[in-house]
C-alpha cells in the first residue's frame, strides 16, 4: 500500500480554510493555492538525500551539504495543477516542469487526455505530480499511468484536498506512488465533487465561472 502523508502544519490548515471560503475571489484563491503548494513542497521534500561538498567561504574552506544527484521534475495536471507550480518552484527552482492535460468528462467523470509534454530525461527524475483536487482519483491515476508509460519510476503525488474514494483508488492502482495530502475530506457528492471541498479548482483559479 502506498505511503500517505496528511499535512499537520497550522499554516497549511489555516490557508486551506481560506481557499474553501466561497467569498475568496480568484486573486486571493490563486495566491493561497500557490502558498499551500510551497508549504506542502517543504514537507514533501523532507526525505531528499544530501551529499557533502567542500567549498570556500570568504573565511575558510568548509564542508556543506547539497541535494544529492536526483534530478527533480514538477508535473501539473492541467488546468488546476498549474496553480501549484510557482509555489513548488519557489522551493525547488532547479526542477524541470512537464505538463499533462486531462479533463473530467461531465457525464462519466472519467478523465480525457488532451496534452502531454514532459522533460526528455523523465525516467531519471524524481517527479512531483501536482493537482489541487483528488476526487474520484481518475485524473491522478491516469496521469501516473501516462508518466509510467514514458518511463517514470519515482513518482510522488501532491494534492491540497482529497476525497477518501480518490485516495483509495490511487493507492490501489498505483501502490508505489507516495501521496501527500493537504486535507482529507469527507466524501464525494452525486456530481463527484468533494464535500466540503472548495468547488471547481480550475474555475476558481482562472475565474472561468
Ligand atoms: C479537476 C481537478 C482534477 C480532477 C479531479 O480537474 O483539477 O484534475 O478534476 O477529479 P477526479 O479525481 O475525479 O479525476 P477538471 O477535470 O475539472 O479539469 P480542469 O482543471 O481543466 O478544470
Ligand atoms: N474537481 C474539482 O475541481 N473539484 C472537485 O470537488 C472535484 C473535482
Automatic annotation (TrEMBL):
| Alphabetic keyword roster | Allosteric enzyme, Glycosyltransferase, GTP-binding, Magnesium, Nucleotide-binding, Transferase
In what way is its activity controlled? Allosterically activated by GTP.
> Key word Phosphoprotein present in the record?
no
Tell me which residues bind uracil.
194, 199-201
Report the co-factor binding details: Binds 1 Mg(2+) ion per subunit. The magnesium is bound as Mg-PRPP.
Q: Which residues form the Phosphoribosyltransferase domain?
A: 6-208
Where 5-phospho-alpha-D-ribose 1-diphosphate binds, per the record, is at: 79, 104, 131-139, 200
Pfam families in the record? UPRTase
List the molecular function annotations (GO) for this entry: GTP binding; magnesium ion binding; uracil phosphoribosyltransferase activity
Q: Which InterPro entries match?
A: PRTase-like, PRTase_dom, Upp_B, UPRT, UPRTase/APRTase
GO terms under biological process? UMP salvage; uracil salvage
Q: Which Gene3D superfamilies does the protein's record reference?
A: 3.40.50.2020
- Would you name any one GO CC term? cytoplasm
Q: Return the broad EC class.
A: transferase
Cofactors (names): Mg(2+)
Q: In which pathway does it act?
A: Pyrimidine metabolism; UMP biosynthesis via salvage pathway; UMP from uracil: step 1/1
Q: Which domain of life is it from?
A: Bacteria
Q: What is its EC number?
A: 2.4.2.9
Q: Which reaction does it catalyse?
A: UMP + diphosphate = 5-phospho-alpha-D-ribose 1-diphosphate + uracil
Member of which family?
Belongs to the UPRTase family.
Task of the protein:
Catalyzes the conversion of uracil and 5-phospho-alpha-D-ribose 1-diphosphate (PRPP) to UMP and diphosphate.
HAMAP family documented for this protein:
Upp_B (MF_01218_B)
In Swiss-Prot or TrEMBL terms, this protein is called Uracil phosphoribosyltransferase
Amino acid at each position: 500500500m502506498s505511503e500517505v502523508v496528511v499535512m499537520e502544519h497550522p499554516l497549511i490548515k489555516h490557508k486551506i480554510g481560506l481557499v474553501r471560503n466561497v467569498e475568496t475571489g480568484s486573486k486571493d484563491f490563486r495566491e493561497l493555492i500557490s502558498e499551500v503548494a510551497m508549504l506542502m513542497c517543504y514537507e514533501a521534500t523532507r526525505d531528499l538525500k544530501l551529499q557533502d561538498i567542500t567549498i570556500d567561504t570568504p573565511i575558510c574552506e568548509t564542508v556543506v551539504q547539497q541535494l544529492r544527484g536526483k534530478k527533480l521534475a514538477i508535473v501539473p495536471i492541467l488546468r488546476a495543477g498549474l496553480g501549484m507550480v510557482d509555489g513548488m518552484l519557489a522551493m525547488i527552482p532547479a526542477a524541470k516542469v512537464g505538463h499533462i492535460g486531462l479533463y473530467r468528462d461531465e457525464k462519466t467523470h472519467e478523465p480525457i487526455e488532451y496534452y502531454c509534454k514532459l522533460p526528455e530525461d523523465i525516467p531519471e527524475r524524481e517527479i512531483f505530480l501536482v493537482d489541487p483536487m483528488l476526487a474520484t482519483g481518475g485524473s491522478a491515476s491516469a496521469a501516473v499511468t501516462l508518466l509510467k508509460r514514458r518511463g517514470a519510476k519515482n513518482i510522488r503525488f501532491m494534492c491540497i484536498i482529497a476525497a477518501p474514494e480518490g485516495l483509495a483508488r490511487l493507492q490501489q492502482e498505483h501502490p508505489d506512488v507516495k501521496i501527500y495530502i493537504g486535507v482529507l475530506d469527507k466524501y464525494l457528492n452525486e456530481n463527484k465533487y468533494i464535500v466540503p471541498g472548495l468547488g471547481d479548482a480550475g474555475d476558481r483559479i482562472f475565474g472561468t465561472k
